[in-house]
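Researcher: Before we compare anything, I want clean individual predictions. No alignment, no superposition, just each chain on its own. First chain goes here; please echo the sequence and then give the structure tokens.
Model: Echoing the first chain and its structure:
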Amino acid sequence: MDSIAFTHASISAHDLAEAVRFYTDVFGMERIPSPDLPVPVEWLQCGDKQLHLFERQVEAPEYHHFAVHVDDFERVYRIALERDLFDEYAADGVPAIYELPDGVLQTYIRDPSGNLVEVDRPDTKGLDSEIAAAVEKRSETVSQSEEGLRSSLYTDS
């Protein structure tokens, strides 16, 4: 079989300039040259992949999302807290942070157009104790099958 790999994700943005600011400010993505298309578009570099933003006045799907690995989870968490970007909160009002069975952390935020973005970090090592205290282990709240316990979000390591 031929090799395949993701190259980019494309999402709609109600206000292209606002969306570019969001992704550059929150995640440190960088604007890169974009082709001229029938609708306004901006391309952003995200690691070795790209995020393509298309200006469209459509509602973001409620649960569709893409995920971004971040080295500085705490920085993104604090920006999201300051800007009230979190999609889910625990019963005590603290933003929801989940730990998958393999130890990966994930939280969910919404961009200015309502797109759902999963923010990932490989583990809790060195994480600020205040943030670590808010982590909910999925394996303690959702029963895991044998396969679920073997699952891993980071498969290239």
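Researcher: Okay. Second chain, same rules.
Model: Second chain and its structure:
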Amino acid sequence: MKKITGVAATAAMLIALTGCAAGGDGGNGTDGGGDGDIVVGFSQVGAESGWRTANTIDVKAAFEEAGIELKFSDAQQKQENQIKAIRSYIQQQVDVIAFSPVVESGWDTVLKEAKDAGIPVVLTDRAVDSADTSLYVSFLGSDFIVEGERAGEWVKTEYADADKVNIVELQGTTGAAPANDRAEGLRNVIGDDPKFDIIASQTGDFTRAGGKQVMEAFLKSNPDIDLVYSHNDDMGLGAIEAIEAAGMVPGVDIKIVTVDAVKDGMQALADGKINFIVECSPLLGAQLVDVVKKVVAGETVEKRILTDETTFTQEQAIEALPDRKY
């Protein structure tokens, strides 16, 4: 099926709504506008964490269940790989492009190419900082600033009677939306209170190995650490290894708050090695399928679609673990 633009593209979407559009699989000669005729190109950040792996599994399963063809690419945490994948999807004339941006900036050119080709783009999990919001039809994912604020509220409550709190921050990938926003969210809550001192902040690139390496460096240069704020569970789990190797007890000698709530993180929380987790659900597949169907059918979708999430204490983690899907 050849991609068309402008008024013709709008007409094509209206035809699809009646179930009479040609297949979106490159013109295989099949009739009808069923889900099996839709082709989606999806560019994933990589496999840097348990969260990302769970997200990939969920997205693939949701599209398979819906009978929608999914062309999948792993960017290995490199923006140039994602740009290359998106251009490949444009060349293949897919019906919808979805991707989770490695970083926020630098997408205008390739997204303009998709728009000019008449291919709608859906952002998943992470945002872009483009001033031209017409370059994508919807952004599906969490509010990372709110996640940081939830972590900050726990910190304020936990240390309500403390005189001084030394915090080290394990940041996510430099320039990534969750890293920027989770840092901002925490500071929104504790920033005006002089007793909270973020004494060190460095990227661990959302990986367990990175979290361990950075935490080892923090421990050598900052002997008096009260709290670790980790932008995801995996870096927090790496920090646990470093703290234990230094002869201290994670969750007691140094408290830890993380974001994600994947199984390994939840188990560490249940074991008392992490003290609090803010949930960021990776299970976006079903919502993404719904958005894709509506876009192909020419229906209006919300520009910003949030996921439902919560927070966990040790007791809540113990209760939730037996039925945890990720």
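Researcher: What stands out in the second chain?
Model: Residues 58 and 283 are 6 Å apart (CA to CA). Additionally, The longest strand covers residues 196-203.
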